[in-house]
UniProtKB/TrEMBL annotation:
PANTHER family: FAD SYNTHASE (PTHR43793:SF1)
Gene Ontology terms: cellular component: cytoplasm
Keywords, comma-separated and alphabetical: Nucleotidyltransferase, Transferase
Protein name per the record: Glycerol-3-phosphate cytidylyltransferase
Biological processes, Gene Ontology terms: teichoic acid biosynthetic process
UniProt organism field: Lactiplantibacillus fabifermentans T30PCM01
Entry annotated with the keyword Transferase: yes
Domain named Cytidyltransferase-like: residues: 5-124
GO molecular function, one term: glycerol-3-phosphate cytidylyltransferase activity
Domain of life: Bacteria
InterPro entries assigned: Archaeal_FAD_synthase (IPR050385), Cyt_trans-like (IPR004821), G3P_cytidylTrfase (IPR006409), Rossmann-like_a/b/a_fold (IPR014729)
Amino acid sequence: MTKVITYGTFDLLHKGHIRLLKRARALGDHLTVCVSTDEFNAEKGKHAYTSYEDRKYILEAIRYVDEVLPEKSWDQKIKDVVDNDIDIFVMGDDWQGKFDFLKDYCEVIYLPRTEGISTSKIKKDLGVPD
Ligand code: C2G
């Protein structure tokens, strides 16, 4: 079984997130999504509208997602890959090169982002603070 993993906040879920998850899942037989906790989001300088519990609940309902785990720190990826027998690590290419250190443990693939949509754009278009 080819296992894939990806990471993110996935706030105000939109087509760009879904397309990333769909393409990631298509690379293997199982997709684990590590969703940023509210505390880690603060570390990332992000404030998600939707709580960690609700973002987890939503992700678990997506047909392309097989398992959802918490992302609590920048430093957990190697352990996650090893402990979960991951074959492929996937991120959008806004992260191009940032996780190449994982190449010692698994394949690393950066997928093209979906243009024209982002959580920040949604908030801006709705006139709410980012
Ligand atoms: N994404 C995309 N197209 C968009 C928006 C997002 O392909 N229009 C992808 C991002 O590249 C990322 C995933 O969807 O791979 C989740 O995006 P975010 O929720 O913004 O995640 P981010 O804040 O980048 O967190 O340790 C990694 C971080 O947790 C990534």
